[in-house]
Amino acid sequence: MADPRLIYVIDDDESVRTVVERYLLREGFAVHSFISAEAAQAAIEQHMPDMLILDIMLPGQSGYDLCKWVRSRSDLPIIMVSARDEEVDRILGLELGSDDYLAKPFSPRELVARVRTVFRRLRIVAAVPEPVVTLTHVCGDLTLRDEERRVTSGDQDIVLTAKEYELLSYLIKHKSRAFTREQLLTQVWGYEYIGDERAIDDLVKRLRKKLVGVDSHVEIVTVWGYGYKLEG
Q1: What is the pTM of this model?
Q2: What are 55-98's pLDDT values in tens digits?
Q3: How far apart are CA 210 and CA 206, in angstroms?
Q4: What band does 157 get if pLDDT is binned at 50, 70 and 90?
Q5: Per-residue model confidence (pLDDT) at position 97
Q6: What's the rounded Cα separation, in Å, for the pair 2 and 209?
Q7: Is the pLDDT of residue 46 over 60?
Q8: Distance of alpha carbon 24 from the chain centroid
């Protein structure tokens, strides 16, 4: 059965474009392919698709550039792909606002599964009403101010990236409660992430370093075989 949603595939490797397009078409999606960020950007300005599958390494503008441009205008779902699986590339892609990151070579079936998971989770999130927000939360020497998107330890501000803030604020609001990596991925990225759980481990490692840097007594504790929790 045809799926009316339109996906733009941006990759300068013809073999990758061909395989990805074939699998997506087989699943019923509409697909348009582009070899550069500039060509995709021009198409997006004319007609907004339902998702981007975006390579990082492109001639001219990079996939990062296009991701930043899209995020300044839209919450359009983005899955980034790259031949590089370095931690810094994965972190940067996720911090810039991509919804998933997949290293090449990848299974086309896995890519299709992730596409469907992103769409499914976004429908669920859209159907859930926003909770009532309490503006200030305290955990030990940490104070979270929701209205300012700000976390302080004593009188020191903790400088956080967007994803670091989302994770730390969630843990502060649910202090002493243990969460699995899957649960934290869902909260931080807004859908049921089925890819590499190292995204959460990366964030935890960076947050621990920043908490030590401000001499906070609050710790992100590893619950072995399960996940993480915040203790103050």
Answers
A1: 0.60
A2: 988 999 999 899 989 888 887 889 988 876 666 666 777 777 78
A3: 6
A4: very high
A5: 74
A6: 48
A7: yes
A8: 21
Residues 217, 144 contacting (CB under 8 angstroms)? no
Report the C-alpha gap between 116 and 109 in whole angstroms.
11
Nearest in space to 49 (alpha carbons), one of 30, 67, 71: 30
Q: How far apart are CA 7 and CA 24, in angstroms?
A: 8
Strand partners, 80: 54, 101
Whose CA is closest to 99, among 60, 69, 128, 71? Answer: 71
- Predicted confidence at residue 101, as pLDDT, reads 82
Q: Which tokens hold the place of 226?
A: 């399960």
Separation between Cα atoms, residue 21 and residue 18, nearest integer Å:
5
CA distance linking residue 77 with residue 63, whole number of Å: 14
What six digits make up the tokens of 7?
Answer: 């996906």
What does the angle CA 56 – CA 48 – CA 67 come to, to the nearest 5 degrees? 25
> Looking at the chain, how many residues does it have?
232
How far is the C-alpha of 29 from the C-alpha of 143, rounded, in Å? 46
Side-chain-side CA neighbours of residue 152 (13 Å): 9
Domains of the chain with bracketed CATH: 6-127 (3.40.50.2300), 136-231 (1.10.10.10)
Contacts of 72 (CB under 8 A, 6+ apart): none
What is the residue whose two structure tokens read 């698709």? Answer: 49
CA angle, 123 then 127 then 132, to 5°: 135
